Amino acid sequence: MDTARITALFRENFALYGDAGASLSVWHDGCEVLSLADGWCDRERTVPWTADTPVLVWSATKGPAAACVLHAMQEHGLTPAARVADVWPEFAAHGKGALTIGQTLSHQSGVPALDRVASVFDHAAVAEAIAEQAPYWEPGTAHGYGPRLFGYLLDELVRRIAGRTLGEYWRTVFAEPLGLDFWIGVPEGIVAKVAPIFPPKAAPPKDRFYTAFVTPGSLTLRAFGSPDGLKSVAAMNAPEGRRASLPGFGGIGTAAALAKFYAMLACGGALDDRTFFKPATLAWMNTTFVQGDDRVLLIDTAFSAGFMKDPLALAGEPVSSEGKKLRAIFGPSPSAFGHPGAGGSHAFADPKHRIAFAYVMNRMEPGVLPGPKALRLVGAIYE
Q1: d(C-alpha 357, C-alpha 11), whole Å
Q2: pLDDT tens across 94-122, in order?
Q3: What is the pLDDT of residue 265?
Q4: In the chain, alpha helices (H)
Q5: What local confidence, expressed as pLDDT, does residue 159 receive?
Q6: Euclidean distance between CA atoms 63 and 225, whole angstroms
Q7: Neighbours of 172 (CB within 10 A)
Q8: Which of 19, 23, 306, 314 has the fewest beta carbons closer than 10 A?
């Protein structure tokens, strides 16, 4: 790995792509081999950004959140073939009774949005609304990304299986044992230390996703608006947004913390003399459960049990520069998995090469998937 090349690309992100503050952490064989941080936390450039600066990572939260569900399943003898209704009986309403946990973790539930209003701050009301929601398609026959609601599905599964909230499960099972500065619900003493996030300056691309995103009544817009509240960057910067436990889009932490978490997954589920996952559970993470046209994101996506994968090219389809993938946001390895976040945050594990990567920043970029700021860095790791 050419660290000088990666460092140069990281520095260029500030001049070429408008980064304000950003961090990069790369791990190999369970050790951090590169840590970069630069820029400013605030628009006034009075607070320097460091490797210890925590920031909102949006949907990159979904990786740690999914790990909580999978760990709870592992500890209680459940497999992806188990039905959601076996642990959450109310979920069976409106034809959802046969839906498996594996299908739910790979966005096949048919419930990426709600028809009724429920507040992001009221987990019980959202969980009740999910259970009572009629699916938008026959469960298990298609998939559609749940940008916000997915986190409540994960949280309720952990509560039903392990009797704890997902935020508590993350803290006690992963964050504290591994010493991770990453929170799903920031404690009061950390709230003021979090760097604010800034919206993109550039206009969004004119594509199917953004057309649907601004079309009233579209499933895409409904999904990004369910449940109700915290719909702006400013709201997420407010103390109540930072304190809220939002496993789908509200995780806050450092690049080093995210990368260390994925380093554990890249190294067989063990790190710091602790074993967290069995081989079978790790296989659920890097095995593609579903691939194809995503009914919410309106692009080809692929998911394992809670994690995003790169979709593979089928016969006759164009491939990425990395090979047989349609795109390669997780590098060239087919075993790689992780999750990006809105605006450019990105993190993943590559078990084949025992590599973990995390990039976080506070100046968002347009686009539903990571852009050049993160992807140039990913590419350089494998050069």
Answers
A1: 17
A2: 999 999 999 999 999 999 999 999 999 99
A3: 98
A4: 3-16, 62-75, 84-87, 101-105, 123-132, 149-162, 166-169, 176-178, 188-191, 208-213, 219-224, 233-237, 239-243, 255-266, 279-286, 372-382
A5: 98
A6: 21
A7: 11
A8: 314
pLDDT for the residue numbered 367: 85
What confidence score (pLDDT) does residue 320 get? 66
Q: Which amino acid is at 3?
A: T
Which residues lie across from 218 on neighbouring strands? none
Give the Cα separation of 97 and 94 in Å (integer).
Answer: 8
- What span, in angstroms and rounded, lies between the C-alpha atoms of 359 and 375? 10
Cα 1 to Cα 34, 104, 377: the distances in Å are 10, 37, 11
Whether 292 has a pLDDT exceeding 70, the answer reads yes
Q: Letter for the amino acid at 150? A: F
Cα separation values, 298 from 73, 91, 148, 293, 295, Å: 31, 26, 16, 6, 5
Which two structure tokens, joined as six digits, stand for 200? 């993109």
The Cβ of residue 198 has, within 10 Å, a number of other Cβ atoms equal to 18
Per residue in 297-355, pLDDT tens? 999 999 999 999 999 987 667 766 666 899 999 999 999 999 999 999 999 999 999 99
Domains of the chain plus CATH, in order, are 3-382 (3.40.710.10)
Pair 337, 328: CB distance under 8 Å: no
